[in-house]
Amino acid sequence: MTTTKLKVKNPQELIRAARRKGKYNKDVANCIGIAPAYYSSVINGKLCPGPNTAEKIADFFGKKIDDIFFEVSVKKNTTQKEKVR
Predict the structure, then answer these.
(1) How far is CA 4 from the centre of its chain?
(2) φ, ψ at 71 (rounded to 5°)
């Protein structure tokens, strides 16, 4: 099974764009209604945002989702656990 996740194309450009607006990462997070630690993890590529969060980030910067994020296909292992009786 393959799923698609979003990753930030250019983290440094997002940081610069925030600074041009007079904002730091924590300010951006607060403006879009997410935790600063979560926003930082998304920007640093440690976590992938869901579609709603990606849209909020894109809207904040006045961009389209495709301008900020790229899609990554991730292959998931699917295993079935045996029932224990």
Answers:
(1) 12
(2) -95, 140
**pLDDT above 70 covers what percent of the chain?**
91
Residue 27, CA distances (Å) to 4, 10, 36, 55 in order: 28, 19, 8, 17
Q: What angle do CA 21, 25, 27 make, to 5 degrees?
A: 65
Q: Tell me how far apart the alpha carbons of residues 17 and 4 are, in angstroms, rounded to a whole number.
A: 26
* 68: its two tokens: 């900020």
Identity of residue 68? I
Average pLDDT (65-78) is 84
